[in-house]
Protein backbone atom coordinates (compact mmCIF):
# COMPACT_ATOMS: atom_id res chain seq x y z
CA UNK A 1 0.00 0.00 0.00
CA UNK A 2 1.30 3.44 -0.94
CA UNK A 3 2.54 5.64 1.90
CA UNK A 4 0.32 8.60 2.77
CA UNK A 5 1.66 11.95 1.63
CA UNK A 6 1.31 13.15 5.23
CA UNK A 7 3.84 10.60 6.53
CA UNK A 8 7.58 11.36 6.57
CA UNK A 9 9.67 10.06 3.68
CA UNK A 10 12.53 7.61 4.12
CA UNK A 11 15.16 10.34 4.22
CA UNK A 12 13.34 12.22 6.98
CA UNK A 13 13.22 8.98 8.96
CA UNK A 14 16.95 8.60 8.35
CA UNK A 15 17.51 12.13 9.68
CA UNK A 16 15.54 11.36 12.84
CA UNK A 17 17.49 8.12 13.28
CA UNK A 18 20.79 9.99 12.86
CA UNK A 19 19.79 12.56 15.49
CA UNK A 20 18.84 9.73 17.86
CA UNK A 21 22.14 7.94 17.20
CA UNK A 22 24.14 11.13 17.84
CA UNK A 23 22.15 11.69 21.02
CA UNK A 24 22.87 8.19 22.34
CA UNK A 25 26.36 7.64 20.87
CA UNK A 26 27.91 11.05 20.14
CA UNK A 27 31.29 11.10 18.43
CA UNK A 28 34.08 12.69 20.43
CA UNK A 29 37.85 13.08 20.38
CA UNK A 30 39.64 11.46 17.43
CA UNK A 31 36.43 9.86 16.21
CA UNK A 32 34.80 13.30 15.96
CA UNK A 33 37.81 14.67 14.06
CA UNK A 34 37.62 11.74 11.65
CA UNK A 35 33.91 12.36 10.97
CA UNK A 36 34.55 16.08 10.46
CA UNK A 37 37.22 15.35 7.82
CA UNK A 38 35.00 12.73 6.19
CA UNK A 39 32.12 15.22 6.15
CA UNK A 40 34.24 17.88 4.41
CA UNK A 41 35.27 15.38 1.72
CA UNK A 42 31.66 14.22 1.21
CA UNK A 43 30.38 17.79 0.89
CA UNK A 44 33.10 18.64 -1.63
CA UNK A 45 32.20 15.55 -3.68
CA UNK A 46 28.52 16.44 -3.48
CA UNK A 47 29.02 19.92 -4.94
CA UNK A 48 31.44 18.57 -7.56
CA UNK A 49 28.79 16.14 -8.81
CA UNK A 50 26.08 18.82 -8.77
CA UNK A 51 28.31 21.04 -10.89
CA UNK A 52 28.76 18.23 -13.39
CA UNK A 53 25.00 17.64 -13.46
CA UNK A 54 23.98 21.28 -14.08
CA UNK A 55 22.65 21.80 -17.61
CA UNK A 56 23.36 25.18 -19.17
CA UNK A 57 20.68 24.63 -21.79
CA UNK A 58 17.94 24.19 -19.19
CA UNK A 59 19.05 27.33 -17.35
CA UNK A 60 19.17 29.42 -20.56
CA UNK A 61 15.59 28.34 -21.35
CA UNK A 62 14.30 30.23 -18.33
CA UNK A 63 16.72 33.16 -18.06
CA UNK A 64 14.57 35.61 -20.02
CA UNK A 65 11.76 35.64 -17.45
CA UNK A 66 13.48 38.30 -15.33
CA UNK A 67 10.38 39.61 -13.50
CA UNK A 68 9.65 36.13 -12.17
CA UNK A 69 13.26 35.56 -11.12
CA UNK A 70 13.45 38.91 -9.33
CA UNK A 71 10.30 38.12 -7.38
CA UNK A 72 11.59 34.68 -6.37
CA UNK A 73 14.94 36.11 -5.26
CA UNK A 74 13.23 38.94 -3.37
CA UNK A 75 11.05 36.41 -1.59
CA UNK A 76 14.04 34.20 -0.73
CA UNK A 77 16.56 36.82 0.38
CA UNK A 78 14.39 39.80 1.41
CA UNK A 79 10.91 38.68 2.46
CA UNK A 80 12.07 35.67 4.51
CA UNK A 81 14.75 37.55 6.51
CA UNK A 82 12.30 40.39 7.17
CA UNK A 83 9.73 37.86 8.41
CA UNK A 84 12.21 36.26 10.78
CA UNK A 85 13.33 39.63 12.11
CA UNK A 86 9.88 41.24 12.39
CA UNK A 87 8.27 38.21 14.05
CA UNK A 88 11.05 37.74 16.60
CA UNK A 89 9.26 39.63 19.43
CA UNK A 90 6.17 37.45 18.90
CA UNK A 91 7.68 34.05 18.11
CA UNK A 92 10.98 33.96 20.00
CA UNK A 93 9.27 33.42 23.42
CA UNK A 94 7.99 30.08 22.07
CA UNK A 95 11.51 28.67 21.69
CA UNK A 96 14.97 28.98 23.19
CA UNK A 97 17.35 31.72 21.96
CA UNK A 98 19.52 29.09 20.25
CA UNK A 99 16.54 27.67 18.35
CA UNK A 100 15.41 31.10 17.21
CA UNK A 101 18.93 31.70 15.95
CA UNK A 102 18.30 28.61 13.83
CA UNK A 103 15.00 30.12 12.64
CA UNK A 104 16.80 33.28 11.57
CA UNK A 105 19.43 31.16 9.81
CA UNK A 106 16.64 29.27 8.05
CA UNK A 107 15.27 32.59 6.79
CA UNK A 108 18.52 33.59 5.06
CA UNK A 109 19.06 30.30 3.19
CA UNK A 110 18.67 29.92 -0.59
CA UNK A 111 15.73 28.09 -2.15
CA UNK A 112 15.63 24.39 -2.89
CA UNK A 113 16.42 23.06 -6.35
CA UNK A 114 15.18 19.53 -6.98
CA UNK A 115 12.00 19.54 -4.90
CA UNK A 116 10.98 23.02 -6.12
CA UNK A 117 11.33 21.86 -9.73
CA UNK A 118 9.54 18.57 -8.98
CA UNK A 119 6.56 20.33 -7.38
CA UNK A 120 6.40 22.83 -10.25
CA UNK A 121 6.32 19.97 -12.73
CA UNK A 122 3.65 18.08 -10.76
CA UNK A 123 1.49 21.23 -10.64
CA UNK A 124 1.90 21.99 -14.38
CA UNK A 125 3.89 25.16 -13.80
CA UNK A 126 6.68 26.89 -15.72
CA UNK A 127 9.39 24.25 -15.38
CA UNK A 128 12.25 25.99 -17.29
CA UNK A 129 11.77 29.14 -15.20
CA UNK A 130 11.76 27.02 -12.04
CA UNK A 131 15.06 25.42 -13.04
CA UNK A 132 16.58 28.83 -13.62
CA UNK A 133 15.25 30.49 -10.45
CA UNK A 134 16.13 27.63 -8.12
CA UNK A 135 19.63 27.23 -9.56
CA UNK A 136 20.39 30.96 -9.44
CA UNK A 137 19.11 31.11 -5.86
CA UNK A 138 21.50 28.33 -4.83
CA UNK A 139 24.48 29.98 -6.53
CA UNK A 140 23.70 33.41 -5.06
CA UNK A 141 23.26 31.84 -1.65
CA UNK A 142 26.99 31.14 -1.55
CA UNK A 143 27.59 34.90 -1.40
CA UNK A 144 24.34 36.29 0.05
CA UNK A 145 23.71 33.89 2.93
CA UNK A 146 26.98 34.64 4.83
CA UNK A 147 26.29 38.38 4.51
CA UNK A 148 22.73 37.98 5.74
CA UNK A 149 23.89 35.81 8.65
CA UNK A 150 25.87 38.72 10.01
CA UNK A 151 23.03 41.16 9.37
CA UNK A 152 20.07 39.12 10.63
CA UNK A 153 21.32 36.43 13.03
CA UNK A 154 21.28 37.40 16.71
CA UNK A 155 24.52 39.21 17.73
CA UNK A 156 26.93 37.10 19.72
CA UNK A 157 26.46 33.90 17.74
CA UNK A 158 29.80 32.41 16.78
CA UNK A 159 29.45 32.94 13.04
CA UNK A 160 32.53 33.83 11.03
CA UNK A 161 32.87 37.31 9.57
CA UNK A 162 31.13 37.82 6.23
CA UNK A 163 34.22 37.85 4.04
CA UNK A 164 35.91 34.97 5.84
CA UNK A 165 32.68 32.98 5.59
CA UNK A 166 32.35 33.71 1.87
CA UNK A 167 35.96 32.67 1.36
CA UNK A 168 35.40 29.41 3.24
CA UNK A 169 32.26 28.62 1.27
CA UNK A 170 33.95 29.49 -2.03
CA UNK A 171 36.79 27.12 -1.18
CA UNK A 172 34.76 24.25 0.25
CA UNK A 173 31.57 24.43 -1.83
CA UNK A 174 31.90 26.66 -4.87
CA UNK A 175 35.34 25.52 -6.04
CA UNK A 176 34.25 21.84 -6.32
CA UNK A 177 30.99 22.97 -7.98
CA UNK A 178 32.83 25.00 -10.63
CA UNK A 179 35.35 22.20 -11.17
CA UNK A 180 32.52 19.73 -11.70
CA UNK A 181 30.74 22.03 -14.13
CA UNK A 182 33.93 22.60 -16.15
CA UNK A 183 34.31 18.83 -16.40
CA UNK A 184 30.68 18.36 -17.46
CA UNK A 185 31.60 17.71 -21.14
CA UNK A 186 33.73 14.77 -19.96
CA UNK A 187 31.70 13.31 -17.10
CA UNK A 188 28.22 14.85 -17.45
CA UNK A 189 26.81 11.83 -19.26
CA UNK A 190 28.26 9.43 -16.72
CA UNK A 191 26.84 11.45 -13.82
CA UNK A 192 23.40 11.50 -15.48
CA UNK A 193 23.46 7.73 -15.98
CA UNK A 194 24.42 7.24 -12.34
CA UNK A 195 21.87 9.59 -10.77
CA UNK A 196 21.38 7.16 -7.89
CA UNK A 197 25.00 7.71 -6.88
CA UNK A 198 24.42 11.47 -6.71
CA UNK A 199 21.40 10.89 -4.48
CA UNK A 200 23.50 8.64 -2.24
CA UNK A 201 26.27 11.27 -1.93
CA UNK A 202 23.64 14.01 -1.43
CA UNK A 203 21.87 12.27 1.41
CA UNK A 204 25.00 10.71 2.85
CA UNK A 205 26.78 14.06 3.18
CA UNK A 206 23.77 15.60 4.92
CA UNK A 207 23.52 12.68 7.35
CA UNK A 208 27.23 13.00 8.12
CA UNK A 209 26.88 16.72 8.86
CA UNK A 210 23.83 16.07 11.04
CA UNK A 211 25.64 13.33 12.98
CA UNK A 212 28.80 15.39 13.60
CA UNK A 213 26.78 18.53 14.42
CA UNK A 214 24.47 16.82 16.87
CA UNK A 215 27.33 14.87 18.42
CA UNK A 216 29.11 18.12 19.25
CA UNK A 217 25.86 19.72 20.42
CA UNK A 218 24.90 16.77 22.64
CA UNK A 219 28.32 16.80 24.28
CA UNK A 220 27.76 20.52 24.95
CA UNK A 221 24.40 19.70 26.59
CA UNK A 222 21.95 20.42 23.73
CA UNK A 223 19.03 18.39 25.05
CA UNK A 224 19.43 19.81 28.54
CA UNK A 225 19.14 23.29 27.03
CA UNK A 226 16.13 22.53 24.75
CA UNK A 227 12.97 21.72 26.74
CA UNK A 228 10.14 19.73 25.16
CA UNK A 229 7.90 22.81 25.14
CA UNK A 230 10.39 24.64 22.93
CA UNK A 231 10.28 21.82 20.38
CA UNK A 232 6.49 22.14 20.15
CA UNK A 233 6.93 25.90 19.93
CA UNK A 234 9.38 25.42 17.05
CA UNK A 235 6.71 23.51 15.11
CA UNK A 236 4.37 26.48 15.48
CA UNK A 237 7.08 28.99 14.52
CA UNK A 238 7.96 27.08 11.34
CA UNK A 239 4.27 26.67 10.46
CA UNK A 240 3.64 30.43 10.81
CA UNK A 241 6.64 31.38 8.66
CA UNK A 242 5.75 28.83 5.96
CA UNK A 243 2.10 29.95 5.86
CA UNK A 244 3.08 33.62 5.53
CA UNK A 245 5.63 32.82 2.81
CA UNK A 246 3.10 30.82 0.79
CA UNK A 247 0.47 33.53 1.20
CA UNK A 248 2.89 36.31 0.24
CA UNK A 249 4.18 34.62 -2.92
CA UNK A 250 0.67 33.66 -4.06
CA UNK A 251 -0.81 37.11 -3.44
CA UNK A 252 2.04 39.07 -5.06
CA UNK A 253 2.14 36.78 -8.10
CA UNK A 254 -1.57 37.37 -8.68
CA UNK A 255 -1.40 41.11 -8.00
CA UNK A 256 1.40 41.49 -10.56
CA UNK A 257 -0.59 39.63 -13.21
CA UNK A 258 1.55 36.52 -13.65
CA UNK A 259 0.01 33.56 -15.45
CA UNK A 260 -1.09 30.56 -13.41
CA UNK A 261 1.95 28.58 -14.57
CA UNK A 262 4.26 31.38 -13.46
CA UNK A 263 2.39 31.75 -10.17
CA UNK A 264 3.05 28.08 -9.46
CA UNK A 265 6.77 28.57 -10.10
CA UNK A 266 6.90 31.63 -7.86
CA UNK A 267 5.07 29.86 -5.04
CA UNK A 268 7.20 26.71 -5.09
CA UNK A 269 10.56 28.44 -5.66
CA UNK A 270 9.93 31.47 -3.46
CA UNK A 271 8.54 29.75 -0.36
CA UNK A 272 11.05 26.91 0.10
CA UNK A 273 14.38 26.68 1.86
CA UNK A 274 17.21 24.30 1.06
CA UNK A 275 18.23 21.59 3.51
CA UNK A 276 20.97 20.44 1.12
CA UNK A 277 22.61 23.89 1.08
CA UNK A 278 21.67 24.92 4.62
CA UNK A 279 23.31 22.10 6.55
CA UNK A 280 26.70 22.21 4.76
CA UNK A 281 26.74 26.02 5.06
CA UNK A 282 25.99 25.81 8.78
CA UNK A 283 28.95 23.43 9.09
CA UNK A 284 31.15 26.19 7.60
CA UNK A 285 29.57 29.27 9.20
CA UNK A 286 29.09 28.24 12.82
CA UNK A 287 31.05 26.62 15.61
CA UNK A 288 30.48 22.85 15.84
CA UNK A 289 28.81 23.10 19.24
CA UNK A 290 26.23 25.57 17.91
CA UNK A 291 25.31 23.77 14.67
CA UNK A 292 22.98 21.19 16.25
CA UNK A 293 20.44 23.71 17.56
CA UNK A 294 20.80 25.87 14.46
CA UNK A 295 19.94 23.11 11.97
CA UNK A 296 16.94 21.79 13.95
CA UNK A 297 14.60 24.46 12.50
CA UNK A 298 15.98 23.79 9.01
CA UNK A 299 15.23 20.07 9.30
CA UNK A 300 11.72 20.66 10.67
CA UNK A 301 10.88 23.31 8.06
CA UNK A 302 12.16 20.98 5.35
CA UNK A 303 9.69 18.23 6.23
CA UNK A 304 6.85 20.70 6.73
CA UNK A 305 7.35 22.37 3.34
CA UNK A 306 7.45 18.99 1.58
CA UNK A 307 4.13 17.88 3.06
CA UNK A 308 2.33 21.19 2.50
CA UNK A 309 3.68 21.71 -1.03
CA UNK A 310 2.74 18.15 -2.00
CA UNK A 311 -0.89 19.00 -1.20
CA UNK A 312 -0.69 22.34 -3.04
CA UNK A 313 0.89 20.74 -6.11
CA UNK A 314 -1.93 18.24 -6.37
CA UNK A 315 -4.52 21.01 -6.03
CA UNK A 316 -2.87 23.03 -8.79
CA UNK A 317 -2.60 19.93 -10.99
CA UNK A 318 -6.35 19.31 -10.78
CA UNK A 319 -7.19 22.65 -12.43
CA UNK A 320 -8.74 22.41 -15.93
CA UNK A 321 -6.44 22.78 -18.91
CA UNK A 322 -8.68 25.39 -20.48
CA UNK A 323 -8.50 29.04 -19.44
CA UNK A 324 -10.89 29.91 -16.64
CA UNK A 325 -12.75 33.26 -16.51
CA UNK A 326 -10.51 35.88 -14.99
CA UNK A 327 -7.49 33.57 -15.11
CA UNK A 328 -4.49 34.20 -17.34
CA UNK A 329 -3.67 31.33 -19.69
CA UNK A 330 -0.85 29.05 -18.69
CA UNK A 331 2.49 30.06 -20.13
CA UNK A 332 3.58 28.07 -23.17
CA UNK A 333 6.61 26.89 -21.26
CA UNK A 334 4.30 25.09 -18.87
CA UNK A 335 3.60 22.65 -21.64
CA UNK A 336 7.17 21.49 -21.41
CA UNK A 337 6.25 18.84 -18.92
CA UNK A 338 8.63 16.60 -17.09
CA UNK A 339 7.31 13.29 -15.82
CA UNK A 340 6.01 13.62 -12.28
CA UNK A 341 9.19 13.60 -10.29
CA UNK A 342 9.76 11.92 -6.98
CA UNK A 343 10.31 14.68 -4.46
CA UNK A 344 13.55 14.20 -2.56
CA UNK A 345 15.20 16.02 0.26
CA UNK A 346 16.73 19.08 -1.38
TrEMBL record:
<keyword id="KW-1133">Transmembrane helix</keyword>
<feature type="transmembrane region" description="Helical">
    <location>
        <begin position="66"/>
        <end position="87"/>
    </location>
</feature>
<dbReference type="InterPro" id="IPR038770">
    <property type="entry name" value="Na+/solute_symporter_sf"/>
</dbReference>
<feature type="transmembrane region" description="Helical">
    <location>
        <begin position="231"/>
        <end position="253"/>
    </location>
</feature>
<feature type="transmembrane region" description="Helical">
    <location>
        <begin position="99"/>
        <end position="119"/>
    </location>
</feature>
<keyword id="KW-0812">Transmembrane</keyword>
<feature type="transmembrane region" description="Helical">
    <location>
        <begin position="281"/>
        <end position="301"/>
    </location>
</feature>
<feature type="transmembrane region" description="Helical">
    <location>
        <begin position="165"/>
        <end position="183"/>
    </location>
</feature>
<feature type="transmembrane region" description="Helical">
    <location>
        <begin position="131"/>
        <end position="153"/>
    </location>
</feature>
<feature type="transmembrane region" description="Helical">
    <location>
        <begin position="195"/>
        <end position="219"/>
    </location>
</feature>
<feature type="transmembrane region" description="Helical">
    <location>
        <begin position="37"/>
        <end position="54"/>
    </location>
</feature>
<feature type="region of interest" description="Disordered">
    <location>
        <begin position="324"/>
        <end position="346"/>
    </location>
</feature>
<dbReference type="Pfam" id="PF13593">
    <property type="entry name" value="SBF_like"/>
</dbReference>
<keyword id="KW-0472">Membrane</keyword>
<protein>
    <submittedName>
        <fullName>Sodium/bile acid cotransporter 7</fullName>
    </submittedName>
</protein>
<dbReference type="InterPro" id="IPR016833">
    <property type="entry name" value="Put_Na-Bile_cotransptr"/>
</dbReference>
Amino acid sequence: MARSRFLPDNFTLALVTTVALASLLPASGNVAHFFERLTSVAIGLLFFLHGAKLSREAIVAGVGHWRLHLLVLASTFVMFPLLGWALKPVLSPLVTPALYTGVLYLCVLPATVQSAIAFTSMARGNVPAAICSASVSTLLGVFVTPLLVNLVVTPGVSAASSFDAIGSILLQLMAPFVAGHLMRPLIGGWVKRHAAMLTLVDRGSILLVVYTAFSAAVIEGLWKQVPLGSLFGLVLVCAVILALALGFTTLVARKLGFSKADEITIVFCGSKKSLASGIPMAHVLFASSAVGAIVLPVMLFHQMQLMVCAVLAQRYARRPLETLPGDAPDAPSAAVQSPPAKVTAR
